[in-house]
Amino acid sequence: MILSCNKEKDNSFEKDKYEIISLLIQKLPPGPPPPPPYGVHKKDTLAFNKYVDSIYKLDVNIAILAHCAPINKFPKSVKENISNDFILLLEKLESTNSNCEKINLDLLKIPNNRKLKLVNKPFKNLFSKLDVSYYVAFSDVAINEVKDIAVVYMSEDTSSLSGSIDVYFLKKIDEKWKVFKRKTLSIS
Question: Mean of the pLDDT values across residues 152-164?
């Protein structure tokens, strides 16, 4: 059996679903970063690592589509080099196709520097109207019965001409969701 937010109403699924969405929102870097301080130029230095960590502490405004993003059939390339368990979850996402409930911002656990705005419309012209750095949309979250692997589709746009659509494959390791693999479907 495969769980998805429109089939099972138990609290443990909702918790996992919102942990996954929270994780992906936290991974969004705030806009273009400020230039690094003088001397911070090597990726292997402690100073560079502190600089990168400081970027994620900057404020960022994010618009989130309130309902599930529609999904077309995934291309064959998405199903290459992944386990059958993940393929079953992809097929489940294709069959549910935007039948999940509205996202509840109160259930997301994100840092205070992430300012979220729920929107009901696609991103066109939202950037100037809402003063946001990102527009994101999520599919339903498909989680296996054991609740140790999951798949979600995410569209992420930073302007009307810049964005990407990715499929995230996640595993639960030590009771925390981690991105196992990401496959990009399109970049604009």
Answer: 84
